[in-house]
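To: structure desk
From: M.T.
Subject: fold request, one chain
Message: Could you run this one when you get a chance? Sequence is below, nothing fancy, just the single chain.
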Amino acid sequence: LGCTTVICSDKTGTLTKGEMTVRRIFVSGRKIEVSGAGYEPKGEFHGDVLFPLEKDMPLKELLRAAVLCNDSQLEENDGKWSIRGDPTEGALIVAASKAGLSVRETRLSNPRIEEIPFSSERKRMTTVHKEPDGKRIAYMKGAPEEVLSRCSSIAADKGVIPFSETEKKAVLRINHEMAEAALRVLGIASKIIPGEKTRCDGDDEQDMVFLGLIGMMDPPRQEATEAVRTCKRIHIKPIMITGDHEITAR
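Reply: Done. Structure tokens follow.
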């Protein structure tokens, strides 16, 4: 170690606590702040929210999509809350729980019947679910740029409307603002799948309805802050490696 001049470190869970928490939501042209810390499903929604929350249909559908296109589980043991699965996905179901959405009931009433998994190349995940009325709906979450490029409509307070390139650029600016606030941002979208189809393919990931953006924070470890300070003092260059958006990483 005496010869070391550079240290390369993973970010999530190493330089940070690995506990993602949803902080900001952008839905139907509205900005919403979410309070609370860690995985305990306690927190409030502030800003341009329609109360009671169950009547805020765009927000409800966004969080419902985040719960269904998701593989994580929220668990409580002796009053301590934890996530089984990916911390990013865990943050989504915690946010949905804060809004009063039952994760278990939502998944039971909308079973998953198909999946196109996330990969670092695709930068998105899509699942297909059977609704109680028999309809099939695809839900997508992933890098905002990837999700936006596959959307032709957007969910607004007055319903689904066409999604122009100008409006997409406006959403990308919101995404940039969230990333500059050190938030990891996900885009969420949905689409009704024709009933006659038996398999989900790439065509099902086109002409989707954009539902919104969800930004989450993973706070830095206090000891990591001191370690980086020490490295700089003794002329070791620390490098952070992450799959997050460059702006979020900075």
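Reply (cont.): The longest helix spans residues 165-180. Let me know if you need anything else for the meeting.
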